[in-house]
Amino acid sequence: MTRYNAFALLSHALTGKKWPLAWRSPAPKASYDIVIVGGGGHGLATAHYLAKNHGITNVAVIEKSYIGSGNVGRNTTLVRSNYQMPGNTEFFEHSLKLWEGLSHDLNYNVMLSQRGQIVLAHGPVQLDVLARKGNTMRLNGIDAELLDRGQVQKLIPYCGFSPESRWPIYGALLQRRAGTARHDAVAWGYARSASEAGIDIIENCEVTGFVRDGDAVIGVETTRGRILAARTGIAVAGHSSQVAALAGLKLPVESHILQAFVSEPIKPLVDHVISFGAELFYISQSDKGGLVFGGHIDGFNTYTQRGQLPKVQTVMECLVALIPAAARLRLLRHWGGIQDMTPDGSPFICATPLPNLYLNGGWCYQGFKATPASGTTYARLLATGQDHPLAAHFQLDRTMRGDGLDEYGLGNWTWKQ
Amino acid sequence: MKGFKRLPSGGRIDRAKAISFTLDGKAKQGFAGDTLASALLAGGGGVVGRSFKYHRPRGVMTAGPEEPNALFTLGSGATQEPNIPGTQAELLEGLAARTQNGWPSVGFDVMAINQRFAKLLTAGFYYKTFMGPRKRSWMLYEPFIRKAAGLGEASADPDPARYDTRRAFTEVLVVGSGPAGLAAALAAARAGARVILAEQDSDLGGSLLSEPVGSAGDAWRATAIAELAALPQVTLMTRTTVQGLYDGNTLGLLERRDHLSPDPAKGQARQVFTTLTAQRIVFATGAIERPLVFADNDRPGVMLASSALAYLQRYAVAPSGPALVVTNNDSAYRTAHAFKAAGLQVVVADTRATVDAALTAGLEVETAARLVGVSGAHGVTAARLARADGSFLRALPSTLVAVSGGWSPAVHLTSHTGIKPRWDAATACFLPGGFAATHAACGAVMGQFALGQAIAAGFTAGRDAAAALGHAGNSGALAAPDIQSFGAAGEPLWRMPNPRHRKAFLDFQNDVSDKDVAQAFDEGYRSVEHLKRYTTLGMGTDQGKTSNINALAIMAGLRDVTIPEAGTTTFRPPYTPTAIGALAGRAVGKHFRPIRRSPLHQWQEANGGVFIEAGPWLRCWYYTWAGDSAASAYIKEMELVRRNVGVSDVSYLGKIDVQGPDAPEFLNRVYVNGFAKLPVGKARYGVMLNDDAVALDDGTTTRLSENRFFMTTTTAQAGEVMSWLEFLLETAWPELRVQVTSITDAWGGMAVSGPNARKALELTFPGRDLSSAALPYMGVLEFAVEGVPIRLIRLSFSGELAYEVYTPADYTQDLWEHLLAAAAPLGIKPYGLEALASLRIEKGHVAGLDLDHRNTLDDIGLGKMAGKEKDYIGRAMRFRPKLQAPERWSLVGLELLDAGQKLRGGSILFPQGAELKGHGHGWITSVTWSIELNKYIALALYDGGLKHAGEEIVCAYPLLNETVRAKVVSPHFIDQEGKRLHV
Amino acid sequence: MLRIPCPWCGERDYNEFRYGGDADKVRPPFGKPAVEGADLKAWHDQVFVFDNPKGPHKEYWQHVQGCRHWLVLERNTATNQVLQAWPAREFALARVKP
Amino acid sequence: MFERRSALAGALHAGPGGPLTIGEVRGWTLWQVTAQPGAEAAMMSSLVAQVGALPDKVGLATQGNGRTLMLVGPAQYLLSGGPVTVSDAEGAVVELTHARTRLYVEGPDAAEVLSRGAPLDFHDSAFPLGAFAQTGIHHTPVLIYRVGAARYEIDALRTFALTLWHWLEDACLPFGFGVK
Ligand SMILES: Cc1cc2nc3c(=O)[nH]c(=O)nc-3n(C[C@H](O)[C@H](O)[C@H](O)COP(=O)(O)OP(=O)(O)OC[C@H]3O[C@@H](n4cnc5c(N)ncnc54)[C@H](O)[C@@H]3O)c2cc1C
Ligand SMILES: NC(=O)c1ccc[n+]([C@@H]2O[C@H](COP(=O)([O-])OP(=O)(O)OC[C@H]3O[C@@H](n4cnc5c(N)ncnc54)[C@H](O)[C@@H]3O)[C@@H](O)[C@H]2O)c1
Ligand SMILES: Cc1cc2nc3c(=O)[nH]c(=O)nc-3n(C[C@H](O)[C@H](O)[C@H](O)COP(=O)(O)O)c2cc1C
Ligand SMILES: [Zn+2]
After folding, report:
1. Looking at the complex, does the CB of residue A208 fall below 8 Å from at least one CB of chain C?
2. pTM given for the model
3. Is the interface score ipTM higher than 0.90?
């Protein structure tokens, strides 16, 4: 493979030599050891780690559109490991550690920017909630700092500290290792690496059914023909229910739209990731200069990738409440992604009741940061049929056992998670 | 030489009104009716900006919102506004504009050195480098990249301007006021429909504004506008951009009012955002001209042909030297003829071999010509033409190269709801891909480029829209003006030969050239979406209005597929960048969200109450009589309650009236404990679960009569509980004869607590028997004082002898004042939320974080309350194994063992001797100083719960590097037998 | 903007309403079963498992900034097109009666 | 000892002056009357006996026997002017007099002011004189009643009334208003 580095860049510039394909686009073969349905972050990461960690390369990633067309290519790119529930803390920290080496691992700059995330508290009770989380993080070897109002003001003086603020800023939890990464590069970098290892990435190919041998799943039907596989892994995020239904399965998942927003590009203004505490709202500035931000899901089942106008306005209100200077900045574009929301806000990386069919889904707001850990753990499950210990909690039957993972304590409604 | 000049006469500017403005601090002049761009062109034009990546000199390229180059920062300080296209900035007195992206100036920009490294800075170069040598190396490079990127600079100070939002409805919305839109609005309005005509420009007329003032075309426009303005059912909105189409025929409209110098102190909004629902929508949004792709096509002086026409006719701005019009279609002849008529020197180069003689009449035209280069770095001086085979044709001195690569209909809005545009081979355009039944489009957006065609289509669309709404009025007829009409028929050739491989730009703002597209193709970023994301094509402030189609045509060529096979990227709102403040409107500062206030709020405000935000409520946190901070005041307030008597506002509690013959059965179902047999005149504490067995809420419910109950809920969950009860009655148990009504607002309440509580009430209600016999614990008395109803319920949150006294909200303050006065001899005083919460911790009542949405009835130590024989919401799910596991956490009390230290909420708990690592065995949910125990105490959830009573544990708070020791005790720190309640 | 036809108040903006989830699911009967745990699976699926269709979907909404009544809305989740609405109580009663 | 105290007590300061007038309406009473399931017809006939004809359409208020009646849901009425008696089996009566604060806005731009908060079509064809609607302004539920050609009354929840009053003052600012 042509290594990417400054030298290669220079030599291509001087010689005018063409760059090779980042990933191949082969025709699907009749059968593979493993077929992964969904060319989003998780599907592609799983492919990469199957090759890298398990030496399995007779693998196809089947994507109905272009790779990265799903949520990996439309999310607000927040990467962090501030989780407090056992099962979540370790998983997301594992992920963050993998993020820290990802550009090198992939030889593709995913621009992990560990600029720090500031989660604001607007009262003493909120600060206690954050303290519990921060203390848990520290006890798990994860960096976290509790800030008082003065310390927060030093970091982000342009935020709403005036007495006019409806909910004054009281303090914050800071994770310095948290930050952002370049979303598309994650999809492309994983794809390039997997492709290089011999894995087939098959775009514009929709899975329309499963090939069955009794209960067992032995392959997929696609718009480009039947493809057999010893093991099949679903990783289709917002379309989890749709694809599972093709196998007759019902999931604890509902599909909701989350909107995202970008402002016109400006010179650096917001140097951290900031999460507002009065309502769900988070913001960072992309390297290109746009403020990238979002709020809560619109709040009702939908597969349309476009949001409702009142929600747009709610999010703008939060932005101005947090950063009053932003009023004069202009919104450049807003879009939506279909999120796989679960009733406890946590995902699934597990076997399904059907032999040889595996599930990765239910990511809610947190699938981007989870991508590397999801990939490693799902790859292990698909390679060995065994749960990875770090993902052992993410089972379909956990709610039946009373072992739900409601990280934010929001209750059993997908639209409130 | 200056490239442009102002003509001595003509145009739609008001020469009587000179306007002064500054550019980079230098004084300049223009006229009312100018835009910043036209004024700068009138002053000579030239370089007005530098490009994003290569810092190439750029000039004004368009006359509309599609402008990619001429971006300015307007104003300074708190009102500084970056990235405003000069074509969109009306020239206002005192306007202070600054150029962007050039240092020390856009004329001489040191970063232009980037052009030398252009070959290194190709598409996506940053994905291939900046990774080493160490893992975190990107963090060293990133600040430089960030600084280099970003266009203008934003202010960090709060925007002092005011914005407003509104909601509106209409029968017919017409978007765009060109000939098609005017015709549509006229037809619909004449038929009797309620019409809104929205136009982004400061003036109505669209492309008709480029007809000479006083001409037949202009007269047609004026007549149409006059007729519309006179019709009462028509609202004309100028400076109003329709920014997005959303579900339910709803659109977002942004109106700009800067030209009125709005004064925020007078409430005047700078911009107003309207959410409009229209029963019918007619899109008459016109089309945006496409540039041509040729060597150095970004030089100042290269301009869209229709924009050159607009500058001439609207602003009386013309090139100071000869003009060259280069086109592949008919529409640019309108520009050429106008130039000719204005006495300007013009040559037309047409890519086509043959052109209709009617078009070329009187013009100097080169057919089958190709534009292969321009000279002049800071302003075009000459252009070179070649023949189709590449051979030299001629060189022409030119200060303006007006180009037309055809038209891209403005299909943005019609695409916002997910309808992909459709390629029309006849016009070589993407047209709207389809419509909802209530939508129509007309004019250039439909590829109807000939004037008569556009007017006829607009008229039909307007008339049909009105008819569909049942308006039977006669629309009459509308003749097109009698002027020469130019269509846009042409050939799909956009890319000129580029033998010397010079830069030929597609996306001017983001510096994406045809070579970048080729590179993206080589690397496999071939889908239009990958192309966009990899090269950033179309991702700038102009959203690719001039670039997308050219780029995708080139990609289609490389992929050897047709243009429709390659497809477009997704159109998303807003159509043009929209001030965030306008979308937020007046929901800023204190008005961000509403404030909820108790009926005692005003009294508290006037009497030393200090407030804290609690959800929407402002709750009285503590009173200054007790101290000047919550931390000091609450202890005095607690002492008052434990030793004497205090009164606290409990109006914040949710209150629900439950009525009907089946009310007892209903309550019996929603509460885990029994309510069916609650006697009249008695109150009972109850807990409700969600279906998943997690505790939803707790509170007391009082049976006022056989069929009527008075329920209270926690403040936080009041809304949830109300909706939940309504949900159950309307969806699960529709047969139950029960009505629930929120009366939270109807009644105010106060808790009178302390050993002297009865005395205080006896002083307040003299003559009333309040003895335990008359009003036992958990009893209720209802009576009236001066005709005012009083509801007195004997129950306690603090653990002391206590009563809740309710009275209708308008009387609450009087009762409160009366009580304070009557019981003054006892020394009664008010106490606030902090003390209330601390008292209940001592008593071991769960609230707040003890009751988050993860805890079950058993977790909070109340499992025994649940009825054994009856069913209740949440029962089935309560018995899931993990929830019943013996090692599951449950409520305990903690007493601090290390004197001089503190217990803190959010601490993680460990058994003594355990390694302080991992998730611990529990956490602290609430903490207070106990005045009875004289130490810090806490409520906590601890694995195994009270099985560990008496054990010493460690509370870790690594965020402050603290660990303290505590003892596990019963959560009921005081009066476990409840003696005080029963005195 | 999704516009919801409230059977009582008429068509209104969706954000006057509170969402209440899938209305096609029928709650298991109220009443303690003879054996504790016999209805656990039914309740679990009621709360935690969804059809989540891409297409017509019946769902609960409450008109909280209006008449406060619950309604059942049928809406196409692929397009957000509103298909039909019923008062929730009528919908529930019709479901009880065969 | 008891006098009714408004949620807006002390908050009604003279405005800057202008074509709009805003203020509080006092001295009214309000009940909600709802039939129990199955007893709709019985309750309605007992209401007819007490107040005369009932409105049959949500959105238009009727007057009768000194009372104003609004149909707001299935056999559910808001009643002002005086209470009614309904048996427990027939329906539920709840007094809401103290639960609401009534504001008004009057003047040529009154409907435009309301449009800056309420998502309703105030055009004559959609919201004629005598029309009312329950909706929301600034996140709080309200009932808006058109009582004059250019006069609207707004029933707000009492605990939100002051916030809504501040909202109304602010909304009226660009038009100019006085307070009465
Ligand atoms: C607006 C928004 C903001 C977000 N912000 C964050 C954030 O800040 N931090 C964070 O951690 N997470 C965030 N998330 C969540 C995160 O993006 C997702 O959880 C994550 O990307 C999901 O995993 P994925 O990348 O594999 O999914 P996707 O990228 O959606 O991949 C799924 C793929 O499956 C394909 N597919 C579907 N059906 C089929 C089929 N039948 N056949 C073949 N292919 C199919 C889809 O086309 C898609 O490409 C956000 C999500 C959204 C929508
Ligand atoms: N002499 C002639 O031949 C002659 C003269 C005039 C017009 N024409 C042609 O007639 C055709 C018809 O013109 P038309 O009416 O379709 O287009 P138009 O370009 O005249 O008008 C479109 C209008 O829509 C407005 N607009 C676009 N998007 C908007 C949005 N989102 N919000 C608000 N406003 C928006 C534009 O500002 C513009 O004023 C054009 O092709 C034009 O070139 C020919
Ligand atoms: C982190 C991030 C930053 C983005 N920045 C920009 C931007 O600067 N300009 C732009 O036009 N779009 C930007 N987008 C939005 C994309 O153009 C696009 O809307 C989004 O990826 C969803 O795809 P879709 O609109 O094609 O459905 C950004 C998206 C993300 C996720
Ligand atoms: Zn309603």
Report:
1. no
2. 0.98
3. yes
